[in-house]
Design brief:
The chain has helices at 27-30, 35-38, 44-47, 50-62, 83-87, 140-147, 159-172, 189-204, 212-219, and strands spanning 3-4, 11-12, 18-23, 67-72, 98-99, 102-103, 125-129, 151-157, 176-185, 208-210. By secondary structure, the protein is of the alpha/beta class. It has a single domain (15-219), classed as Isochorismatase-like (Rossmann fold, 3-Layer(aba) Sandwich), CATH 3.40.50. It has a six-stranded parallel beta sheet, with helices on both faces. It has a two-stranded antiparallel sheet with strand order 1-2. The radius of gyration is 16 Å and the shape is globular. It starts with a strand and ends with a helix. The model has no long low-confidence stretch (mean pLDDT 97). The protein binds tricarbonodiimidic diamide. Tricarbonodiimidic diamide (TIU) is lined by residues 24, 29, 39, 72, 157-158, 161-162, 187.
């Protein structure tokens, strides 16, 4: 492993320091009846990336590199859900309400689970996060430090919300960040395109972006 072909220039991958973070590939964002759909979004856009996310995860597993999963969710008593978050967005179902897949975005509920095709395997870390960013109010920073990780490849949803927020948090904490373009998606194609452009602008101001094929070739 060495360089991964990327934009705006090659990503200097270090095998001992690299992990994959798969953000919020949960039923609540990808299936009808969940939180994403309740906000009025076309969740079919999210399911289309599943094959690319799956082969990226498999590539990291095959290379013996860590795969870390995140889930946006809250405690059943909603004590980690600020009213400002619960009240916003005018969804038909609010976080904590009972929907067709159980209580929306609540830890342990069926709709909160990672979709079955991308389920974590034994030994993989799963971070439950109450915010859009995966570092806020979670153990992610300590987990990465313990593993000696300082380079992160990102996949998951949505590109401009939880993925970009987490990349920005990671960038400020000193991690080198690479976004896998076909393994992330937004409900809004123009937002995905804009997020990719702004991440890699100004000489990788937030990080790099790369195609899944080039990442898999680089870590093989
Ligand atoms: N609504 C939306 O685009 N995203 C979220 O609420 N969460 C994540 O991005 N995971």
């Amino acid at each position: 492993m060495g360089q991964i072909k990327a934009e705006p220039f090659a990503f200097p991958a270090k095998p001992e320091a690299l992990a994959l973070i798969v953000i919020d590939m949960q039923r609540d964002f990808a299936e009808p009846g969940g939180f994403g759909a309740s906000l009025g979004n076309d969740v079919g856009r999210i399911t289309k990336i599943v094959p690319d996310v799956k082969r990226l995860i498999q590539g990291f597993r095959d290379a013996g590199l860590p795969v870390i999963h995140t889930m946006e969710c809250h405690k059943p008593d909603l004590s980690d859900l600020p009213p400002a978050k619960r009240d916003r967005g005018n969804p038909t179902l609010r976080i904590g309400d009972v929907g067709p897949m159980g209580r929306v975005l609540i830890s342990g509920e069926p709709g909160t689970a990672i979709i079955s095709e991308l389920a974590p395997i034994d030994g993989e870390v799963v971070i439950e996060k109450p915010g859009k960013g995966a570092f806020y109010a979670t153990e992610l920073g300590e987990v990465l430090k313990a593993k000696g990780i300082n380079q992160l490849v990102f996949a998951g949803v949505t590109t401009e919300v939880c993925v970009q927020t987490t990349m920005r948090e990671a960038n400020d904490r000193g991690y080198e960040c690479l976004l896998a373009e076909e393994a992330t998606e937004s409900y809004f194609p123009e937002f995905k395109a804009a997020a990719i452009a702004m991440i890699r602008a100004q000489g990788a101001i937030v990080g790099w972006t790369a195609h899944v094929d080039d990442i898999l070739e680089g870590i093989a």
